[in-house]
Amino acid sequence: MHREEIIPLIEKAEQVFLSNFPPESCFERAVFFSWGCSIGDCTFCYMSTQPDAKSPTETKRSMESIFAEFILAKNLGWDIGFFTGGIGVFSPAEQELLLQGAVEITREKIWLSVGPLSRTLLEIYQPYIKGIVGSTETISPELHKIVCPSKPLAPYEKMFLEAKALNLQRAMTFIVGMGEKKEDLTLLKAFIEKYDINKIHIYGLIPQKGTMFEHTAIPSAEEQAWWIAQLRIAFPKLDIQCGIWEDRVDRVSLLLQAGANSISKFKAAKLFGTKTAKAIEDEVAKAGRTFKGTLTKIPNIDWDAEVDRLSFSPELKEKIKQKLHQEYLKRMKKNTNLFVSKKA
Ligand code: SF4
After folding, report:
1. What is the domain range of residue 323?
2. Distances (CA, A) of 113 to 110, 116, 125
3. For a FRET experiment, which of 146, 217, 248, 344 has its CA 20 to 30 Å from that of 88?
4. By CB neighbour count within 10 A (0-12 exposed, 13-18 middle, 19+ buried), where does 203 fall?
5. Alpha carbon distances (Å) from 265 to 30, 81, 252
6. Best residue for ligand 1 mutational test, from 34, 35, 37, 147 (most atoms within 8 Å of Cβ)
7. What is the DSSP letter of 173?
8. Residue 274 backbone zone (phi > 0: left; psi -120 to 50: alpha; other: beta)
9. How far is the CA of 47 from the centre of ligand 1 (A)?
10. Residue 261: which CATH number?
11. Which segments of the chain does DSSP mark as H helices, in order?
12. Cα–Cα distance between 85 and 114 in angstroms, integer?
């Protein structure tokens, strides 16, 4: 697909976007509470290459690490894309506690992505969540069987119906580059309509070593933009997030012009203040959008006071401060100083 071929489509999509949203964009951070997965065999996923030895419950992050990340995201102006982690890693009571803490920090309800949830669990989590994310990944039934052999769509479809009945918002994911066909757009549009989806995350394949996609080319910027633009035109008010990666920062302006609202899947904490992070902000400006938040400048705030205002135990607060200062802020400052000295 050549850039010239899609220019009329992109122009139309951009018009639709600007008629429905302010010319802004932001970075969305997905916060993980664990790294393990009890499904583990999606054929595009890094998890499918991991030895079975480690139980998902052994891959939990500490509370201080999770909460430090929420504090960081909040104060850098990042939206929380979703709170996510392995299915069954935490008990419902533990999950609720984490949600409670996260919401106290962000001061708003968040999106949750923890596999298909029953109505009972949706009701338990409802005070803390604005909506749920179904990691649907692709929509063609044949392709879905290949890429997600143990993660069928049906339980997610059920959850979307339950969520709608409870007045919770519904989001889904779609990965471009795994073998979908343009004709699948009809199926995707029908799915969005049927479940009244409010938000979609349009990612591009990341060819993980050891998976069947290891040697597959990444989808081009035009391919990813095509899906975004088609959905923007079909669903003017749909919240569309584009997933990028550090090797595809230069496509951000096109994806935004195609009608994406926000950007995700960039290692924003690790690469904060680097040339790559700055390139994202420049791409947003190139698309004529204002970037809310920052990927490059550490705000001048009292981080300890941000922790002290929380109702957590003194021990937990102390650990959160240590994480914030000794891991996140230290690295971010180092990156920022390096970038400034390289420029000088
Ligand atoms: S895509 Fe999600 S469910 Fe599938 S193996 Fe990876 S982490 Fe597990």
Report:
1. 3-343
2. 10, 8, 12
3. 146
4. buried
5. 8, 9, 12
6. 37
7. E
8. beta
9. 6
10. 3.20.20.70
11. 3-20, 63-76, 92-106, 119-125, 141-147, 154-165, 184-194, 221-234, 252-257, 275-286, 303-308, 314-323, 330-343
12. 6
User: Tokens at residue 137, please?
Assistant: 């990944």
Structure tokens at 201: 């995350």
Determine the atom of ligand 1 nearest the C-alpha atom of 37.
8
**CA 37 – ligand 1 centroid, Å:** 6
Name the pLDDT band for 342 (thresholds 50, 70, 90): confident
Is the model's pTM score more than 0.85? yes
Widest distance between CA atoms in the chain: 59
CA proximity to 6, closest of 189, 182, 243, 225: 225
For the chain, what is the domain count?
Answer: 1
273 in the Ramachandran plot: left (φ > 0), alpha (ψ -120 to 50) or beta? Answer: left
Q: Is 61 left (phi over 0), alpha (psi -120 to 50) or beta?
A: beta
Q: Which residue has the tokens 């012009």?
A: 257
pLDDT above 90 for 265 = yes
pLDDT digit string (tens) for 60-118? 899 999 999 999 999 999 999 999 987 778 889 999 999 999 999 999 999 999 999 99
